[in-house]
Amino acid sequence: MPTIIVNSSSPQTASPRTAVSLGRRRLLRASGLGVLAVALSAAAEPAALARAPNTLGNVMILATGGTIAGSGATSTTTVGYTAATVGVDALLNSVPELKKVANVRGEQVFQIASENMNNDYWLKLAKRVNTLLAQDDVDGIVITHGTDTIEETAYFLDLVVKSRKPVVVVGAMRPSTAISADGPINLYNATLVAASEEAIGKGVLVVLNDQINAARDVTKSNTSTADTFRTPDLGMLGYVQGNKPYFYHLSARKNTVDTEFDIANLDTLPQVDIVYGYANMGRTPVDALVAAGVKGLVHAGVGDGSLANAVKPALIEARKKGVVIVRSSRVGSGIVARNGEANDDELDFVVSDTLNPQKARILLMLALTKTTDTKEIQRMFTTY
Predict the structure, then answer these.
(1) CATH number of 3-258
(2) Which of 116, 170, 353, 378 registers the highest number of CB atoms within 10 A of its CB?
(3) 131 an active-site residue?
(4) According to the CATH classification, is domain 272-383 in 3.30.1330.30?
(5) What is the mean pLDDT of each run of 10 residues along the chain (384 residues)?
(6) Could you tell me the residue ranges of all domains in the chain?
(7) CB–CB of 274/361 below 8 Å?
(8) Which of these is catalytic: 13, 64, 67, 259?
(9) 229: enclosing H helix or E strand
(10) Distance between the two ends of the chain, CA-based, in angstroms?
């Protein structure tokens, strides 16, 4: 793949590794949680932490397409545009201010509208991210992405990235050709965050609209407005203002280097699908997916993950055939209570905690690469 160097000056790499102890202190300040674990990890990742004072970080921009790389017929076209038409070189060159906050290089990983995101793309992207983060000359990564599935890609990476270096996923709600395109400022802010020491050890982040959100909890909440990304109930992590990220709280759930998931040697992922609950729902979708060989099913139930009488027998039969069932909710916020709307212990079901259905699918998929034991899988849902 071609590499586009936006800042023509030589990358300012980290000072010699004599600064490991300094790096540990920086990471401890940045983290705020899990002090002992963070300190141990810092010793294994000195290159991420030993940057000399007053030097720019080295940030890789991995482009995957989406609206941020889209174009419309006119400058007022904000719907009906074509996504994923602008390459990474043009995308980065359109924001020359990037060179003020980082030494930036760009790489086109793939070029798609994000509704076409799939497991194969995720594995390719995650492996590339892990390869780059293992290099001494990469301090952080920004991934440009379509907003339709940005929350899913971010959460997948949050579970499988094996570094505490910052990873920031960014997109736009308006195409690059629009009068008030939000892509350039979002990309600038994302790069600033990825190059910052404040973002070290905070998991994968999603940055749009001057706001910083955690990958686990953020979701797209509006079809078209620039403030669409929200974290229901739990709130965003912070803001970007005045060329600086400000963090006010952190996610308490384990992520990145603290997870048990490793995709380094995986070429495929278990098939997991979602069945949506609604009034007058029947069992046909469940039966069809089980017949197709699905390994796990997420039931996006009404309310607190309730199971309709017409659907419950199909889910019970699916579980007896070895399909792992996770009860989630279509509501969009709140905890799905274990043994609340169903006797999960008796049925051998798993509950999704606060994960929405699309993120519950991702965790179940990765859990199934480790085990089919529902007690272990439930532990994972209360851990991540």
Answers:
(1) 3.40.50.1170
(2) 170
(3) no
(4) no
(5) 39 35 38 39 47 87 94 82 90 94 97 97 98 98 97 98 98 89 96 98 98 98 95 96 96 97 98 98 98 98 98 98 98 96 98 98 98 98 98
(6) 3-258, 272-383
(7) yes
(8) 67
(9) strand 229-230
(10) 34
